[in-house]
Structure formats: C-alpha cells, structure tokens
Amino acid sequence: MFIHTVKSVAVAMVISTVCSVSALAEDAPKAEQPGASLQKIEEIVVTAQRREQSIADVPQSVQALTDEFLQENGVKSLDGVIDLIPGASQVSGISAASTVYQIRSISPSEGIGDSTVGYYVDNLAFSMPALSYAPAIDFFDIERVEVLRGPSGTLYGLGSLGGTVKTITKDPDFEGIATEIKASTALSDDADPSYTGDVMLNVPLIEDKLAVRGVVNYRKRGGYAEIIPYGKKNGNPTERTTARLKVLAQPTEELSLKLAYWNMHSRQEYIDRVTFFDPPRIDNTAGSGNSDYDFVTGDIEYDLGFGVLQSTTGYTKAKLRDNNNGAIALPVGKFESKIEHDTEVWNQDLRFSVEALDGNLNYIVGFFYQDAETVGGQDVLLPTNIQVPGNVGLDSRNDNSTESKSWALYSEGTYTLPNVPVDITVGLRYYKEERTFDQNSSLRLLQLGVFIPTIGVSGYKEDALTPRFNVAWRPTDNGMFYLSAGKGFRSGTINSTSLVNAANAGLGSNFSPLNGPDELWNYELGTKWSFLDGALDVNAAVYYIDWSDAQVAISPVAQFIVVPMGDVEGKGLDLEVVWRTPIDGLTLAASGNINETELKNVDPRIQASTAPRLAYMKNGNQLVATVKETLATVLNYERPLGYEDWNLNFNLRYAYRGKQQSPYDGRYTGDLDLVYTRLSVGNERYEFELFSDNLTNDKGPISVPGGQHTVPYPRTIGVGVHARF
C-alpha cells in the first residue's frame, strides 16, 4: 500500500508539474510574458466567498471554468466538469437527469439520501429531499462554473459535505441585440448519429434599463446499447430540450432586478444502466428514463451605500420517471423496477454584505429558508428464481413523502490585519430543520408468505452549527499559504420501516429508520503561487477529513437503506499546475488527487455479517463509490492563420480515474481513461470545429450501480459550426 501510494504521488506530481486543468481559469499574470499574445490571459473573478474576488485571492481550493474554456475544450455538461475536478467522480447514473456525483471521496453511494455535494444554479440553491441527483444543465451561454472542494457549510448550507458546484449563466446585456447559433452532428462507433442545436438571443428593451436573454438547447443522442430480448440495436436513444429565459431590470444605479426561468425536458428509451458493458447490452423487456425540471428564480440587489442587500427567491419542480423490467446477471436474476419521484422546493435567501475599514473588513450576514417535499419511491419485484440460490422472492412497494422545512442564520467575515499580509476569516451557520416521512410502503417475501406493511408518519427536529476558520498569509504579491478548518452537513435520511426491519432481521441489528443530520470536519493546508512573471501557476492542498457516524447506503436485502454505519477518515493531496509555455499560443495544464478515505469503527454487526453485499464494509477499506486517484490534463494551442482575424485552435483533454467500488455488490470498475480532442478555425463571428469524444473508445464501466453498469458513450467523431451576430 505504501509503495503504491508513493508511486501514485510521484506520477501525479511529475505529470502535474507539466500542466494543470483548473488553473486554466486562474488569474492572469501581472505582466505579459513571451509567448502570451494569443493566450487570452485575463483575470477570473469568482464568488466562492459570496463576494467578487480574483480566484488567486481566494484562500480555498476553488476552480473556475469559464465559458471560453468550456467551449474550446468541448465540455458540454457536468460529466465533463467532474472529469476535471481532483478527487471527484460520477457515482451513479440512471438517465439524463438522474446522475449522482461525489467530491473529495465524500460519497452518497447510490441516489438515495440527500446529496453530499451542494449545487447552485446562479443564486438558486438546488436540492431535493431524500435524493442525491445533480441538476441537469447544458453548458451553452454559461458565464462560468465554480467548484469549491471541501465543505462549504457556512455560506452554502446543507449538502455541501464534499464540495459545492455553482453554475453561473450570462446576464442579459444592455449594449445591443446579439444572437448566437451553434449546431453539430456526430457519428459514433456502434451507435446511431447524434445531433445538437443551440440558440441564444439577447434583446435590450429599454436603454440601460431593461434587457432579456433567451437560450434554447436541443440534444439528440443516438442509442448505443443492444436490447437483448428483441435483438434491437442502439435501442436507448435520448432526446432532450432545455429552455432558459432571463430578464434584467436596472431602474436605478443602486437597484438591480433579475427574473429567470429554466425548463428541461428529457425522454429516453430504456436507460443508461446496461446489463453487460462490453459491448453494451440491456437484458430488459421494457424501460424508460423521463424527466422534467422547472426552475424559477428572482434576484434583487440594492446598494445602500454602506452595504449591499441581496435577495434570492427560488422555486424548483422536478418530475423523474426511471423504469425498467428485465434481468441482471446473477445473483439478482429477473426483476421489475419503477423509480418515480416528484419534488417541489421553495427557498428564500436574504443576505447583507459590507466592506468596511478601508477595505480591510468584509463580512456577510444572511438568512435562508426552505420548504421542500419529495413524493414517490422505488418499487422492486424480484420474483422467486431457482437460478439464484436462497432467493425467496421480494416485492417492495414504496409511495412515500419526505417533507423538509428548514431555516438558517449565517455570517462570515474576513479581516486583513493592518500592515501585515494576513487575512483572518471566521464564519458560522446555525441550521434548524423539521423533517417528516409519511410512509405508505410494504415488503413481501413471496416464497415465505411474509407481508410487512408500513403506514404512518415519522420524523425529527434537529439543528446544527457549522463553523469555518481560515488564516491566509501572503508573503509576496505572487503567493499565499492558507490554513482552514470547516464543517459541512446534510439532512438526515428517514428510511422505509419495512426495509429497515428486513435488514435488521437479516443482520441481527437494531438500526432505526430515523437518521439525524450528517456532519464532518475538513482540515486543510494549502498554497497558491505564481512564478516566471505569471507564466507558471502552482496550487496545492493537503487535507484531512473526519466524518463521524457517516450515513452510508447498504443493501443487505437487495434494496438500499441509509444507516450511520461507522466513521470515515480521509487524507488527500490536490495538486494543480499551469504552464503558459514560451511557445506562442501553447498552454499546458493538469490537476490530480490522491487520497485514502477509509472506513473506521464500522458497526460490529456489519463487520460480522457474512452477507455478500456487506463484505466490503470493513474497517480499513476505502469508502465505496469513491476513487483513490484522479488525473486530468489539458493542452490548448492557438495560432493566427494570417488571414484577417482568423485563428486555429487545437485542444486535447485527458481524464484518468482509478477503479471505483459498487455500494450494491462490491464489484470494482476498471481504471477509466477518457480522451477528447477539438480542432477549430474561427474568428469573433464564425467558428467551424472537428471534435472527438472518448477517442480511445474506453468501454468503462464508469460505475456499477444496482448490479448493472453505466458506461462511457462510445467513440464519437463530429463536426460543428458556431455563429455570433
């Protein structure tokens, strides 16, 4: 283990000193250096601390991927972003809108239980009670994506255990009418053709006072998996449309009003979980993955002179339908599964920020309220199957309602010591929640004739304090060291009583259906430096995570329940380096992570269990659904063509992820190596591209959820055109 770890560190550091992914979006050097004329080096401003700062000045592990970076490198969705984040990975996927991610090996396991990653769409806090799914967003006309690694419980609240992902869209522009059109078509190995189309229209309505911006996205992804019972090739195509409308009003210089609406509509035949992964084949007789999302947000910002008052009101409505019937390789056999959820969320975030003492003091105070409900569940039928020894047949029905009402008070301030280059940051959030679980579920063991119904209401009232401390020392204008300690939390999970009773019967345990909030501490020592007049940037962080009574999904009776099964201890290293080379127009970049995130003090009943699905829940094992090593590298090259303002761009992106263990049955994926390329010719108005995704046609799998597999989309070669008017 030690030799393997040392080898991993050496490989990561050697490669990373050549390049770094996230630093592509880092701050600009203070002076031009040789070879920088075409690099588009500019300062990147982020809002990681809920105020605008240069990313180089944020004493925290933060990445910012700008719209330009996303477009040039062919990053189209959160999947592509996660590939670039040290220590992050996809945990599970069902369909286009049912994907689960983890950051820093703080994994929610499958899709049940609240997310361990906090998500923001502009200023809207996105979350769904009892579900871990990320928002489904298309990255066209995006200002930037910010990723905060490590807990952000003080400023960003519930769910930010492992990190926070903020997607920030472009505001309407008062300057003039603007239009963007983008289209592509692609062919893939052993898959049907795919098509995309994007349109943006910006219209000022009242000079310097009112403007509107609309975006429409269309995605048709060709099917790639064979449907075994019917011998149908490429039988799981997806069609998705997204629409976004944003209105900006500025009645006075001090007052700004924004109103935004999003809609995402997705339809998929069968789902993205395949029975056999090489080649992808689905042993199902029926299936579909359908989803509809609506977001509405209203933002008010008023500059009072001595401070800025901001308000965000948000509404989320989601309808998810992921159903399939078929067969999974032994030991599961035949099954029927229906996963249907309806979620509705209202939230309000009111905050007041101040800059005082000649800029030496910045602080924010805020109030957050949320009223959310998720209705539905998963119905599973595993009929008696003589091919599976010991299978007595299981029929589980769940039509439950999880409701959460919560509020929080939070504050964080940063003080710069006079005449000393030291910043001290202190933050605190008090959170209180009432969560109820209205059960209408049952469990039937078919062969034994056992029927366990559960009808009734249960719940809890809990509160949590999440502090944050940070000290940053800036010995020169080109670098800093920082030391931080922060606490993250997420809401507890209330399980179906019938499933918990079945698990307790099998384990001889006495787990409760009720689990209170989940909390962890993250301790971090980091540094950010710029060398060679800004040509070389290096960011590094070592961290330690203490996750007590970690809520982890286990599956002793074929369906998941979430229990506090023990503690998790994590130790890791993030390293990011960017080199703007002396070769005019060439930037090399990379980032990587190595970690050991191990189980400690696992419940003795789980430790002693001989159940195959719990064999991997042992002290000293890596937490399931996490990876020990990740590495991502990017090469960007741009040069003029000598004809007016036309340029040539070449982009190469590589993402490596180590093996990942299934929380369902303990199986491992292999290592994952994904390569993307893009060659384009264009100017400020027109651009033509040739691109490839998964160039080496890695078969994966990405993850092994529920006894099945999610796989990378097959090798794809495509062409596209982008026009701006």
Layout of helices and strands, plus pairs?
Blueprint: H1 2-16, E1 45-46, E2 53-54, E3 62-66, H2 67-72, H3 78-83, E4 89-93, E5 99-102, E6 117-121, E7 124-126, E8 142-149, E9 163-169, E10 178-188, E11 191-206, E12 210-221, E13 226-227, E14 238-249, E15 255-268, E16 276-277, E17 280-282, E18 284-303, E19 308-328, E20 333-356, E21 361-382, E22 394-398, E23 400-416, E24 422-445, E25 450-476, E26 479-490, H4 497-507, E27 518-531, E28 536-554, E29 561-580, E30 586-600, H5 604-608, E31 629-640, E32 647-657, E33 672-682, E34 686-693, E35 716-724
Parallel strand pairs: 6-9, 13-17
Antiparallel strand pairs: 1-2, 3-8, 4-5, 6-7, 8-9, 10-11, 10-35, 11-12, 12-14, 14-15, 15-18, 16-17, 18-19, 19-20, 20-21, 21-22, 21-23, 22-24, 23-24, 24-25, 25-26, 26-27, 27-28, 28-29, 29-30, 30-31, 31-32, 32-33, 33-34, 34-35
Description of the molecule:
This protein has 725 residues and is mainly beta. The protein contains five helices and 35 strands. The protein has helices spanning 2-16, 67-72, 78-83, 497-507, 604-608; strands spanning 45-46, 53-54, 62-66, 89-93, 99-102, 117-121, 124-126, 142-149, 163-169, 178-188, 191-206, 210-221, 226-227, 238-249, 255-268, 276-277, 280-282, 284-303, 308-328, 333-356, 361-382, 394-398, 400-416, 422-445, 450-476, 479-490, 518-531, 536-554, 561-580, 586-600, 629-640, 647-657, 672-682, 686-693, 716-724. The chain has a 23-stranded antiparallel beta sheet that branches. It starts with a helix and ends with a strand. 52% of the residues are buried. Residues 1-41 have low confidence and may be disordered.
